[in-house]
Amino acid sequence: MQVIHNYHNFPENISTVVTIGTFDGVHIGHRKILDQLISESKKKGLKSVLLTFFPHPRMVIQADNSIKLINTIEERIEILSETDLDYLVIHPFDKDFSNLSAFDFVRDVLVNQLNVKELVVGYDHRFGKNREGDFEQLKEYSHTFDFNIKEIKAQDINNTAVSSTKIRTALQAGDIKTANEFLTTPFFIKGTVVKGQQLGNTIGFPTANIEISQVYKLTPKNGAYIVRATHQENKYFGMLNIGNRPTVNGKNQTIEAHLFDFNNDIYGDEIKIEFLHFLREEQNFHSVEGLKEQLEKDQNDSLNFIQTITPNTAS
Ligand SMILES: Cc1cc2nc3c(=O)[nH]c(=O)nc-3n(C[C@H](O)[C@H](O)[C@H](O)COP(=O)(O)O)c2cc1C
Ligand SMILES: Nc1ncnc2c1ncn2[C@@H]1O[C@H](COP(=O)(O)OP(=O)(O)O)[C@@H](O)[C@H]1O
């Protein structure tokens, strides 16, 4: 897969089948669309293109800084690069772009820049300034500019009963099971290991404090989770807490992972954390001793859960 930043940089003389969307999470529904796109491209001898926008339209049009996404743009690139997609075109969604009329968008972007021969879109797709363009208009333009439209039927979209919004809601409720079912692979975060209060070691549970640099990355609900970490290509199971650590008078939210069978200094390193299971709510213990007892219980619960995972997943 080739990543092209800004559709103006798309190579000339390549005929394409295009789909458009944010594809946050790259969930089951998105994968169905991608499968259609890729199989059409192979059948017709075209290149497959996903046109996506970043920053997200809502970050730009409504200057909405509270928006939280399942994947950062870097993560989305990583997930999509594992598919057979030929081109991922990431266009910076700015005010100028948002002012393009539906007609100009089709002519200037899809036809003149991406050389579209076939467009794969949902029946409810809207595009152009103020989302003025609808499916009927697209059909009209497809005659004007001579490309095919492959409609993703309402039932195909509705039957999957999955949406990025539903996954975000599940994660914000700590419902990892539902989120992971929709996502097909576990929800994950990536960050840098930073210094904390240096208390973890003193209670026998050192925790890697993870700092995420993208403010728009969604973090699941506060609480304790069973996780799998990847550090320098090695995988470790562990348990993680998201929260304010009331027991030790924590003021800000932290994300901290204690890895099992691990004893290395990894300050400053990148770490990836996959969420496997929600263990419990964060609690305010009367003493650090109480917290320690709970962590021992969490560790037992985690190890029992990990045993139930198939050898395939545990590898
Ligand atoms: C699995 C797990 C669950 C935790 N649960 C809680 C909790 O319920 N309440 C709490 O105050 N702190 C909880 N903690 C956070 C600990 O307070 C934290 O790891 C400890 O304060 C060490 O912090 P430090 O890494 O900044 O030194 C949890 C940590 C882990 C790894
Ligand atoms: N099993 C482990 N899980 C997580 N971190 C570990 C582990 N063993 C050693 N470490 C190291 O110890 C650090 C955490 O120690 P801790 O006392 O909790 O300090 P801090 O408050 O700075 O996080 C981690 O950042 C990592 O470098």
From TrEMBL:
EC number: 2.7.1.26, 2.7.7.2
Swiss-Prot/TrEMBL GO biological process terms: FAD biosynthetic process; FMN biosynthetic process; riboflavin biosynthetic process
Superkingdom in the source lineage: Bacteria
Enzyme type, top EC level: transferase
Alphabetical UniProt keywords: ATP-binding, FAD, Flavoprotein, FMN, Kinase, Multifunctional enzyme, Nucleotide-binding, Nucleotidyltransferase, Transferase
Residue ranges annotated for the Riboflavin kinase domain, each copy included: 182-307
InterPro entries cross-referenced by the UniProt entry: FAD_synthase, Riboflavin_kinase, Riboflavin_kinase_bac, Riboflavin_kinase_bac/euk, Riboflavin_kinase_dom_sf, Rossmann-like_a/b/a_fold
Metabolic or biological pathway: Cofactor biosynthesis; FMN biosynthesis; FMN from riboflavin (ATP route): step 1/1; Cofactor biosynthesis; FAD biosynthesis; FAD from FMN: step 1/1
GO molecular function terms noted in the UniProt entry: ATP binding; FMN adenylyltransferase activity; riboflavin kinase activity
Record Pfam families: FAD_syn (PF06574), Flavokinase (PF01687)
CDD domains: FAD_synthetase_N
Substrates-to-products reaction catalysed: FMN + ATP + H(+) = FAD + diphosphate; riboflavin + ATP = FMN + ADP + H(+)
Coiled coil: none
Function noted in UniProt: Catalyzes the phosphorylation of riboflavin to FMN followed by the adenylation of FMN to FAD.
NCBIfam families: PRK05627.1-3 (NF004160), PRK05627.1-5 (NF004162), ribF (TIGR00083)
Annotated family: Belongs to the ribF family.
Name by which UniProt lists this protein: Riboflavin biosynthesis protein
Organism: Wenyingzhuangia fucanilytica
